[in-house]
Predict the structure.
Amino acid sequence: MSKLEIVHLGHPALRAKSSRVTKKELATKKFQTFLDDLSAICVANNGAGIAAPQVGVNKKVIVVDVDPNNPRYPGKKPFPLTIVINPKVTKRSRTLENGWEGDLSVDLRAIVPRADKCVVTGLNRNGEIVTYDLDYSFHARVFQHEIDHLSGIMLIDRVKRKDTICETAEWEKYWKDKKN
């Protein structure tokens, strides 16, 4: 069980820019425990991902975990639990795809345009350089969404069709089965 708590829209950490994690900091037992706790809170809340600012920590860390059995995102192609330190989108396609997004820090859903493919680089928890060539659009979407959090950007900042912003309960009733 994670000792962390998810913070919600209005918390200052969600709008602040996060700082890079040094290799020295990454190697500490305290930071490694933080990575385990961040992963645990993502899984416990059925997230497809989470970023450190969502637990009030402004460090450049994201977790991605796409489970096809996740009730929030059923049937998506799996992406194993992955921690990326200091992630950066180094390349993105010019093709934008509209898709529904949710957020563990705000009980909303909305259609957000995102590049349908991207390349992300960063470090793994051992400080080794990793690169993810994301050609499945949902995986690319999750990585871009979580990386946005590191710059204080929320999904509502990316919404073009404002009429699609809705609380999750209303999304379940009225929007869930509609096409984008």
About this structure: The chain has one domain: 12-95+114-155.
